[in-house]
Amino acid sequence: MFEARGVSLPLDEHSVQWASNLLVVMAHQVDISGERLDDVFEGVLGAATLAFSRMVGWVDRYLVDGVLNVLSAWTLTTGDEMRSIQTGRAQDYVYGLAVGLLILLLWVSWALA
Predict the structure, then answer these.
(1) Which residues pair with 9 in a beta bridge?
(2) Alpha-carbon span 13 to 11, nearest angstrom
(3) In the chain, N or C: fewer CB atoms in 10 Å?
C-alpha cells in the first residue's frame, strides 16, 4: 500500500517491480533504436531551451525595445517643444517662475482646504 497526502494506492511489490521493469524496457528500446537516453534528454531539453529563448527574444525585441523607442521619441519631441519656449530673455523666465509659483500656491491651498 502506498500512501501520500491522504491518498492510498494499492501498490504492492509486484506493481512497483512491474513499473520499474517498464521503465527499463522503454530505456532499452530507446537504446536499441540508436538513440542513447542522454541524447533523448539532450534533444528534449535543447528544444525546450530553444523555444524559451525564442520567446524571451521576441519579448525583448518587440515589447522592451518598443517601449524604449516610444520613450525616446517622446523625449526628443518634448525637447524640441521645450527649445521653442527658450527665448534667452530674463523677463520671460521671471514670468514663468511667477506663474509656476502661483500654480503651486493654488495647489497647496486647495490641498489644505
Answers:
(1) 2
(2) 7
(3) C
The predicted model scores a pTM of 0.43
pLDDT digits (tens, 9 = 90+) for 54-102: 999 999 999 999 999 999 999 999 999 888 888 888 898 899 999 999 9
The answer to whether 8 and 1 are in contact (CB under 8 A) is yes
Q: Where are the domains of the chain?
A: 2-87
Alpha-carbon distances of 65 from 60, 73, 84, rounded to whole Å: 6, 12, 29
Q: Are 2 and 11 in contact (CB under 8 A)?
A: yes
Distance separating alpha carbons of residues 108 and 87, to the nearest angstrom: 30
CA distance 84 to 77: 11
Question: How confident is residue 33, by pLDDT bands cut at 50, 70 and 90?
Answer: low
Residue ranges of alpha helices (H) inside 1-113 are 13-32, 37-58, 65-84, 90-112
